[in-house]
Amino acid sequence: MPEKEYVGSIKKCPNCGIVIESFQSKCPNCELEFNNDYLNQTVAQFADGLESIMMKRNNMVDYFEISTFSKIGKFKETQWESNDDTQQRYVENFPVPNSKEDLLEVFIFAISFINQKSETKYQITWNDIWTNKLKQIYIKSSIAMSDDQETLDYLKQLASEVGISL
Hints:
Elements: E1 11-12, E2 19-20, H1 42-54, H2 60-65, E3 67-69, E4 75-77, H3 82-93, H4 100-111, H5 121-144, H6 149-161
Helix pairs in contact: 1-3, 1-4, 4-5, 5-6
């Protein structure tokens, strides 16, 4: 009889040694919360990458002021640039982490970009992009923290405070 070959790795709790399933944020046996030192830099990586893209924008004044008065006294709406496409792809494709700590940090970071007083098409478009990212983070959180309804309810509360229903 041929020997079985296993591919992948088995994760065990460093505290009690029980086998851990993927996406678990704490040990079901001893309740040790897991974190991954590699992923603890998630928000810093996300922020650095986002800032790097934002700084390449052609008209930074329009970007930060969103709307400016033109010479005739009307608001000039910020125009979508190719750099916005790059930034949008970066936000949409940035990988959502697995650990509870990192999920919370990324969620709070992303929610800070929601502008409840969006008036321009540009602002509304960015709100939609960030809302979709928040929903993606929440879905991953509901998998990783399926045993932590209190934290999931807290994330829903944060989202509802900026007008987002999860």
